[in-house]
Amino acid sequence: MRRDRRITLLCYDPRRPLRYLEVRGTVAEMTEAGATGHLDALASKYAGRPVRYFGDAIPTSFAQTETPVLCRIRPAHVVALDAKGPTRRDEEERTRTTGPIAAEELPAPASHLDLLTRPICGVFTTLGHDGQPRSTVVWVDLDHECALVNTALQPGS
Question: pTM (2 decimals)?
Fold first, then answer.
């Protein structure tokens, strides 16, 4: 992400897989500061009670080998879909937001904000050094006009 800041984040409702939110944008900030605290807050949100990410959500030993990195994603293109199921295209209910997103606008339609704020996993995709896409399942969060994703620092970066 330091080499190529373009990303795609796909958040979907596991109970309704034809309802999703796709956010394409750029990494506005990558920081280790506050990343572990953010993981603790997300793990607590997903568990429904206060927990620590390292020790409660995953084994404590991972804290020795993984360095959390908090990524703030500035959306450039958002697509929201809500299809009722396998139907003809003209019967689908679609909500689309396309094109550049103004800084003062929310990154997603209000109808799909829950996909960034409730306990749902997303798929985070970046381009690797070899130019091939790299996808990771992540927890997502929302911070004003940016989506928040927590990932791990890769060795040698």
Answer: 0.69
